[in-house]
Amino acid sequence: MNMEVVFPGGKRVDAIYKDFTIKTDQPPSSGDKGAYPSPFDLFLASIGTCAGFYVLSFCQQRNIPAENIRLKINIERDKNTHMVKNININIVLPSDFPGKYEKAVVRAAEQCTVKKHLLNPPAINIKTEMEKEEELESLYE
Asked: Which of the 8 DSSP states describes residue 110?
């Protein structure tokens, strides 16, 4: 898998991945317009949407309507470090949701691959690479 990150102006930082451009921005308090989610917002959203995918798949496999199900995400930060210390996901089920599946739908959400990666995080290696002159020339042809 390859991704490229580019700087389109201001404090914007976009990722080009597959056929998508994932646009990010910083809020006005950080010096930009807040036209797009911040990278950290996308990180948090990836956890919620990943868990949501597993809830949706669970319901679809059992022909349980999912239109009225939603996930509420609550973030708790450490007061000293300001780092996230808890991410609480509440699956809000409609009153007609089959009670026998309440624990099972939680287990389904816990299968989220983003969560699994956080529990056993990958190494993140950062280095520099100088672009070769012929690569620069091909950009202007």
From this structure: T
Token pair listed for 110: 């816990």
Half-sphere exposure of 107 (CA within 13 A, CB side): 5
Residue linked to tokens 């210390």? 85
CA proximity to 102, closest of 46, 57, 49, 58 = 58
Domains and CATH numbers, the chain: 37-119 (3.30.300.20)
pTM of the model: 0.85
Measuring CA to CA, which residue among 51, 57, 42 is closest to residue 90? 51
Contact 87, 47 (CB under 8 A): yes
Over residues 6-30, the pLDDT tens digits come to 999 999 999 999 999 999 999 888 8
